[in-house]
């Protein structure tokens, strides 16, 4: 809720089945000063009644206009949930009641979807639900890990501490994912642009050279003839190539999403790729260690925690390994022994877990493991960026430069003959 003056205080909580909607209003106060603002309410009449109660004479009250291209707003991203968790933790530690905290957060969001989500959670809590029950109605935004941590925090009476832990956890995980995406985005985009430039040259530039070559009346060099033939194919069948590439990408994406075996195979292949595979290994270990530490610290039983953690590793190979660890721990194996049996974690991780279990400080030791491997990922990403730059330049030189040389070879040959 935003107003031009601090006239609005608190929205009335109307108990009805109608859905809250945003309204904009204009009016005058007792001194005749024009005012305007925005308020969530069930109906325009409720907005008018609230304005009159506060000494404002409403002139215009109407539903807020929807954006031209839809009112859904941008999608809710993990970083939005991380920011929400940080805001909740800060306000609850400052003594702000949970309903008031949700009202403040909801009114401050510019994303309509996030605003609606927070308002819905607040309404459910006002109706008597716990925070865990309220967020459980939104599993796409609040995953199983988040819900279980909130449930554990509410049960132990340390909800604000758990929210702070969740916020720190999500910020670290999103930062880690962001670094990896940033490292891979640049080379992928450069390669795509290079291929796009090559396609444009084959479709539009090479045919112009081909007309010139016909006037030579001489046989073209093999490399130049190959480029000319490729150009002819592209000009004639570009639409078929687009259909084939688009269909292949769509088919692969659908198969990957639906087939667990394919996901496992692809993730295993990625782990074996030089440099990138090492980054993915370290990233999965860091996410496993931090997530396990957070859940264990929040009071979630270890067997249940491992079941939740499995999906948070970001890799099917590690996910299946953690699920096997859960099964071993459930029949009495120590975590370090179960970790050793899956034969995927480095010796250092197994030893540090063993020390943490013996000292009764498993969560503390796993946090240290997470910090170490997150730093390893950061270093590897920086090294990857430095390594890829010269490789990308070589790729562009070979693809684009090779094509340019191929087009000028007949001209060089003609010049030599004339000379």
TrEMBL record:
- Chief place of localization: membrane
- Residue ranges of the Type II secretion system protein GspF domain? 84-207, 288-410
List residues traversing the bilayer.
Answer: 184-206, 237-256, 392-411
Q: Where in the cell is it found?
A: Cell inner membrane
**Membrane topology category:** Multi-pass membrane protein
| Keyword Transmembrane helix attached | yes
Q: Which family does it belong to?
A: Belongs to the GSP F family.
- Name listed for the protein in its UniProt record: Type II secretion system F family protein
Q: What is the lineage of its organism?
A: Bacteria, Pseudomonadati, Pseudomonadota, Gammaproteobacteria, Lysobacterales
Q: Which Pfam families match?
A: T2SSF (PF00482)
Organism whose genome encodes this protein: Stenotrophomonas tumulicola
GO annotation, biological process = protein secretion by the type II secretion system
Q: Name one GO cellular component term.
A: plasma membrane
**PROSITE patterns reported for this sequence:** T2SP_F
Give the record's keywords alphabetically: Cell inner membrane, Cell membrane, Membrane, Transmembrane, Transmembrane helix, Transport
């Amino acid at each position: 809720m935003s107003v031009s003056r601090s006239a609005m205080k608190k929205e009335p909580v109307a108990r009805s089945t109608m859905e809250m909607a945003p309204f904009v209003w204009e009016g005058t106060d007792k001194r005749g000063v024009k005012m305007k603002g925005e308020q969530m309410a069930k109906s325009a009449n409720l907005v008018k009644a609230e304005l009159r109660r506060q000494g404002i004479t409403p002139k215009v009250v109407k539903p807020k206009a929807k954006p031209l291209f839809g009112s859904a707003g941008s999608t809710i991203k993990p970083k939005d949930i991380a920011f929400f968790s940080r805001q909740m933790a800060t306000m609850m530690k400052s003594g702000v009641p949970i309903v008031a905290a949700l009202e403040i957060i909801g009114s401050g969001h510019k994303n309509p979807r996030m605003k609606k989500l927070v308002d819905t959670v607040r309404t459910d809590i006002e109706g008597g639900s716990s925070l865990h029950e309220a967020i459980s109605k939104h599993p796409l935004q609040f995953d199983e890990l988040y819900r279980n941590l909130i449930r554990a925090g509410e049960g132990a009476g340390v909800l604000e501490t758990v929210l702070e832990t969740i916020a720190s956890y999500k910020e670290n995980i999103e930062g880690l994912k962001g670094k990896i995406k940033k490292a891979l985005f640049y080379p992928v985009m450069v390669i795509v642009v290079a291929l796009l430039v090559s396609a444009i040259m084959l479709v539009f530039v090479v045919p112009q050279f081909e007309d010139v070559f016909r006037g030579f009346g001489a046989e073209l060099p093999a490399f130049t003839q190959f480029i000319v033939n490729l150009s002819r194919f592209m000009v004639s069948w570009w639409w078929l190539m687009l259909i084939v590439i688009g269909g292949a990408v769509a088919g692969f994406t659908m198969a990957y999403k639906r087939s667990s075996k394919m996901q496992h195979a692809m993730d295993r292949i990625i782990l074996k790729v030089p440099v990138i595979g090492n980054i993915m290994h370290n990233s999965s270990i860091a996410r496993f260690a931090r997530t396990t530490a957070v859940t264990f610290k929040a009071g979630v039983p270890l067997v249940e925690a491992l079941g939740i953690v499995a999906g948070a590793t970001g890799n099917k190979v590690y996910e299946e390994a953690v699920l096997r660890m859960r099964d071993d721990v459930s029949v009495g194996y120590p975590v370090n022994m179960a970790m050793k049996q899956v034969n995927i974690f480095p010796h250092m991780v197994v030893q540090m877990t063993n020390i943490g279990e013996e000292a009764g400080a498993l969560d503390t030791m796993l946090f240290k493991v997470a910090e170490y491997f997150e730093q390893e990922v950061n270093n590897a990403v920086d090294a990857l960026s430095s390594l890829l730059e010269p490789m990308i330049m070589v790729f562009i030189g070979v693809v684009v430069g090779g094509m340019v040389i191929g087009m000028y070879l007949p001209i060089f040959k003609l010049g030599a003959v004339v000379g």
